[in-house]
Design a protein that fits this description.
0% strand; 77% helix; DNA-binding; homodimer; 210 residues; globular
DNA sequence: ACAAAGAATGAATAGTGATTCACTACTTAT
DNA sequence: ATAAGTAGTGAATCACTATTCATTCTTTGT
C-alpha cells in the first residue's frame, strides 16, 4: 500500500470544506437559498463543482448544514440573553429583543431562516430551529412561573405563540421585496417595531397591562 | 366574418375553467401544491394539458388563483365570525376559534396555505392572505379599544402577532409529517390546543389574566 | 523513482415536468 | 355548403441545473 490519509490531508480537506461552507453562507446571506447556485459556490470557494460533492451528499444537504449553522448562532445568542441576571421576565424580554434585533440587522439571512420557501430537508431544519427557540422560551417561562412573575400557564403553548408572534411581525419588514428606507428612519422604525412586539408578548405571558 | 364567440361558447369555456379550478383545488387539498402535477390536473378535469394553458398563463398562475380562492373562503368565515353580536372581545375570540378550528378540520389545505413552501407568485398571495386576516383583526381591535374592552395599543402590531401566534401554533399539528392519532384523541387535543392559543392571544390583547 | 491510493476536476449528462405549437375538430355566419 | 375563425389536443420540446464520472493530478510509503 502506498497512500494513507495523513493529518496534513485531513486538515487540507477540512479547510476546503470550511471554504465551501463559508461561501455558501455568504451566497445565502446575499440572495437566499433559492438563488445560491452550486457553480457559483464552487467558484467562490475555488474548487470544482464536483468537489462540492466530495463533501456533501447533495445541494439540499449542503443547505441543510448551512441552515443548521446559521441557526445555531442565533439560538446561542438567545440562550446567552436568557442566561443573564435578573428575573425570568427581564431575561425573557432581553432574549426576545435579541432575536428581533439580530434578525433586523441581517435581514436577508433572517428572511431565509424564517420565511424563504425551501426544500423539504431544509424545511425540516427550520422546524427544528423554531422548536429550539420554543424550548428555550419554554424553560424561561417555567422559571418565571416558579419565581411568581408569570401566572400559571401552558408554557409550551405560550412559547410557541411567542415564536410565531415575533416571526410573523418580522416577515413583512424582512421581506426582500420591501422598499429601502434611509438608515436613520429604518433604525427608528425597527426600534418601534421591536418594542411593540415585545409589549404584546409580555402581556400575553403575564396577563398584565404594561 | 364567420365565427363570433357566443354565450353558449362562453359558458362552455367557463365550465372547463371551473373544472380545472376544482380539480386543482382537490389535488392541492390531497397533497399540497408541490405534488400537484399539471398532467394529473388535466386528466382529472378531462382536458388536454395544453388546454390548461388556454385558461391560465402558467402553473404558478393557476396555483396563485387556487390559493386566492381557498384563502377567500377562510377569510370570509373569519369575517363572518367578527360580524356576529357581542363586544369586540367576544367576537374576536369567536373569530380566532373559527380560524383555528377550520384549519384543523382541513389540515392539508391549511398547511398548504399557512406553511407549505411555494413559488414566489404564490408566496405573494400568502402575504396578502395573512395581511387580510391581520386587517380584519386590526379593525376588531380598534373597535375593542373604542368600546373599552381592550387597552389602548398598536392595533396593527397586535393583529400581526395574533396571526403569527395562531399560525405558528398550528404548523406543528398540521404538518403532513405528523403521526396520525385516533379521531377521538385528536379532537380532544385540538380543543385543548385551540383553547390555549386563544388564552394567550386574548391575554396579549387585554393585558388581563383569564 | 515508482506504484498505489485518494482527491480534484469540469465537461457532459440526466431527470424532471412545465410549456409549446402545428395540427385537428368545432362553431358560427353567410 | 363554405369560409373564417376559435378551441382543444398531446407528443415533442425546452429549460434548467444538480449531479456524475472518466480522467488528471497529488500525496504517500517503499
Amino acid at each position: 500500500m502506498a497512500y494513507r490519509e495523513t493529518e496534513k490531508m485531513r486538515q487540507r480537506k477540512a479547510q476546503a470544506r470550511k471554504r465551501i461552507v463559508d461561501c455558501t453562507y455568504q451566497c445565502v446571506a446575499e440572495g437566499g437559498f433559492r438563488s445560491a447556485r452550486i457553480t457559483r459556490i464552487a467558484g467562490l470557494a475555488g474548487v470544482a463543482t464536483g468537489t462540492i460533492y466530495r463533501h456533501f451528499e447533495s445541494r439540499e444537504d449542503l443547505f441543510a448544514e448551512i441552515f443548521r449553522l446559521a441557526t445555531q448562532r442565533e439560538v446561542d445568542k438567545v440562550a446567552e440573553a436568557l442566561a443573564t441576571t435578573g428575573n425570568a421576565s427581564e431575561r425573557l424580554e432581553r432574549a426576545l429583543r435579541q432575536f428581533a434585533e439580530r434578525a433586523l440587522k441581517g435581514p436577508m439571512m433572517a428572511w431565509s431562516l424564517i420565511a424563504e420557501p425551501v426544500d423539504p430537508k431544509v424545511e425540516e431544519e427550520r422546524l427544528a430551529y423554531r422548536k429550539a427557540y420554543a424550548n428555550l422560551f419554554e424553560t424561561a417561562i417555567r422559571e418565571g412561573i416558579d419565581e411568581g412573575c408569570f401566572p400559571d400557564q401552558d408554557a409550551r403553548q405560550s412559547s410557541t405563540c411567542l415564536v410565531g408572534a415575533i416571526a410573523e411581525s418580522l416577515v413583512g419588514p424582512l421581506s426582500p421585496t420591501q422598499a429601502h428606507q434611509s438608515a436613520r428612519t429604518k433604525d427608528d422604525n425597527n426600534d418601534l417595531l421591536v418594542n411593540s412586539i415585545i409589549r404584546f408578548c409580555m402581556q400575553g405571558l403575564t396577563g398584565t397591562r404594561r
